[in-house]
TrEMBL record:
Belongs to the Lgt family. InterPro entries: Lgt. The gene is lgt. Pathway: Protein modification; lipoprotein biosynthesis (diacylglyceryl transfer). This is Phosphatidylglycerol--prolipoprotein diacylglyceryl transferase. Keywords: Cell membrane, Membrane, Transferase, Transmembrane, Transmembrane helix. Catalyzes the transfer of the diacylglyceryl group from phosphatidylglycerol to the sulfhydryl group of the N-terminal cysteine of a prolipoprotein, the first step in the formation of mature lipoproteins. Signal peptide: none annotated. Its EC number is 2.5.1.145. A 1,2-diacyl-sn-glycero-3-phospho-(1'-sn-glycerol) binds at residue 142. Pfam families: LGT (PF01790). Coiled coil: none annotated. NCBIfam families: lgt.
Length: 273
């Protein structure tokens, strides 16, 4: 029997800028946007071009607002509505943690819709140029979760070579599910999205890449939920499912619907040419 790994004693603060403490989670967001922006610009230059590079630059502000506001409100509404209803001022204490990807996704979708309308862009076409880089933020965000020692996994066999004991997870070895999510929702999904975005046939079908991202994330997240410990205040739902898996159902359906729509729409356009 192998001995489980002991979670490293990471400092939750990455570094200080004067009196300001920059935490790993905030750093993950900042690095994600820095890396993702030039890649999104490059994708946008591929035919058919749907926006200018200045418009991609301008959208960064809207994307940040969508992620932060949507992620926080999503966590409040999906995971702890009664707690925050009793203590509404706690909503603003973002430094205590609590962000939801599904809420962040809704926030970015609304930001994309508003920005596209404001700049008279095709919503689906512009979204297709943005979503391929989203896994960068997902992967780095999960790495930050691991560094913070949060969102750890379910109990694992001590024989699992990478089973780990987390300081807040009790004395039993657990799956480092944050790293599973970083690899699937981050690295794997990024590779799939960039490969698909490099195919002219996928770019021409407006909405296909957006649908592929929604469906791909839903599959990756649902799989990782089998190893992730559910939130203590919610626990398991009916049939042993989790809130994360439940929220992935409409996402997967929307993704499949968008891909089918994109395929049929191009077929209809081609038939009338």
């Amino acid at each position: 029997m192998s001995h489980p790994l002991i979670f490293p004693d990471f400092d939750p603060v990455a570094f200080h800028v004067g009196p300001l403490a920059v935490r790993w989670y905030a750093l993950a967001y900042m690095v994600s946007f820095i890396i993702a922006l030039p890649i999104a610009k490059r994708l946008n230059r591929l035919a058919p071009e749907v926006a200018t590079k200045e418009q991609v630059d301008d959208f960064l502000f809207y994307a940040i607002l969508g992620v932060l506001l949507g992620g926080r409100l999503g966590y409040v509404l999906f995971y702890r509505p009664m707690d925050y209803l009793s203590h509404p001022l706690e909503i603003f204490k973002t430094w205590d943690g609590g962000m939801s990807f599904h809420g962040g996704a809704l926030g970015v979708i609304l930001a994309l819709a508003y920005f596209s309308w404001k700049n008279r862009l095709s919503f689906l076409a512009f979204a297709d140029r943005i979503v391929p880089v989203v896994p960068i933020g997902l992967g780095l965000g999960r790495c930050a979760n691991f560094v913070n020692g949060e969102l750890w996994g379910r109990p694992a066999s001590p024989d699992l070579p990478w089973a780990m004991i987390f300081p807040t997870g009790g004395p039993i070895p657990r799956h480092p599910s944050e790293l599973y999510e970083a690899l699937t929702e981050g690295v794997l999904l990024l590779c799939v999205m960039l490969f698909a975005a490099s195919r002219p046939a996928a770019r021409e079908r407006f909405g296909f890449l957006s649908g592929l991202f929604l469906f791909g994330y839903a599959c990756a997240r649902s799989f990782c939920e089998f190893f992730r410990q559910p939130d203590a205040n919610i626990g398991f739902l009916s049939g042993g499912t989790t809130m994360g898996q439940l929220l992935c159902i409409p996402m997967a359906l929307a993704g499949m619907g968008l891909m089918v729509y994109a395929m049929r729409r191009l077929a209809q356009v081609s038939a009338h040419v």
